[in-house]
Amino acid sequence: MITQSTTAPSRPSRWLRRFVNVEPTEIAALLASFAMFFALLSAYYIIRPVRDDIGVTLGKDALHRLFTIVFAVMVVLVPLFGFVAARFPRRFVLPAIYVFFALDLLGFWLALTSAGRTVWIAGGFFVWASVFNLFVVSLFWSLMSELWSHEEAKRLYGFISAGGTAGALAGPLLTQGLVRLVAPINLLLVSAMLLIVAMAAGLLVRRLRTGETGWEMDAAGGGIFDGAVKVFTTPMFARIALFVFIANIVGTFFYLEQARLVASAIPDSAGRVEFFSGRDFVVSVATFLIEVFGTARVLRRFGVTAALLALPFTAAAGTLLLSFDATLWAVAAVMVAERIVAFSLANPAIKVIYTLATPGEKYKVQNFIDTVVFRGGDATSGWLYSSLGGGLGFAASTMGAVAVPLVLVWLWIARRLGVEHHERAAAIS
Q1: CATH class held by domain 23-428
Q2: Domain boundaries, the chain
Q3: What is the mean pLDDT of residues 309-326?
Q4: Rounded to the nearest 10 degrees, how much is the dihedral formed by the CA atoms of 8, 12, 14, 19?
Q5: Buried b / exposed e across 212-224, counting CB within 10 Å, b at 16+?
Q6: Angle at 151 between CA 411 and CA 209, to 5 degrees
Q7: Rounded to whole angstroms, how far apart are CA atoms 194 and 270?
Q8: What SS3 state is found at 116?
């Protein structure tokens, strides 16, 4: 923990305090954290519309199989990550994995330049992008929960999250600007460079928070399956996993229904990319405003429980709407609302809970939940959607009847998780 200064706030501190309750000694690390998440999400959102367009092109029947493949890849990769986290100093884990993904982007650029968008390369890129965004974001939040305390997180995570949202906004805008100057395939190189910038910012924020030596040099230790074991044996982690799992089942219902409607309503690839970019733009602007002006206030005034409950309540309203009127714009509106609440309230609340975990748990448990559990929800939802008659649409099938009970269970889990967080935070304060 950094000792707080008693000197008068500087001009940058006074300016930042208009938006976030930051102490003078926290400013540099806060801005580095903001910049890291900005570069990271910019890198992903440059390639996200391409991934979503590939998903529509391959079709809804291929999508649920691809989600299953993504889940299988996660199951293989997480033990490998556990091996790395257990044996190498934590300060080296994130930079090494970010460099690995940047090299992957270079490899896809070479493959697509020489072979074009074949079915195998397109499917491979969809799977890779679905793995990439979860791993790099999970590692980012593991670093944040390691370096910021529980009380600091409640004050600062909203602003740090806004860095990612600003990146999610800048990515599509950068894409639209650069695509007029360079071939679309070359945007993969821009994404790779932004990922390297994020890595450099991560090294800086660690140096600013903990220095160059000490406990952060240690490996996480333990076995490669520690993350999974702790999820199934620790009630708080089990509830986080169930919260994330159900959130993704319901969210993927919406995603697959949107893919079905987009394929029939927007026949050309350019139009679909424009639709997805426009949707992401709306989500990013609204989320950014809430994160800067509302997230910290909600967490401090109403608590983690209220922030968690907001997401299943939003999904419940969306499920009821789509059960009666599953048009493209209704689905898009539901997805926009759900993502705004998830990014600005529910996700920061979950990340605040992780600050109460041990350093090893912050990497292994969080990574297992953010990857295997997250994509397990995608895979489960894909098969449910297909078996319940997804081709008939949300309103014409039994999906609403399945989604409503899931949302009710989700509400109960959110409530129990919030209560347990409050009890654990009170016990250690």
Answers
A1: mainly alpha
A2: 23-428
A3: 86
A4: -140
A5: eeeebeebbebeb
A6: 125
A7: 24
A8: coil
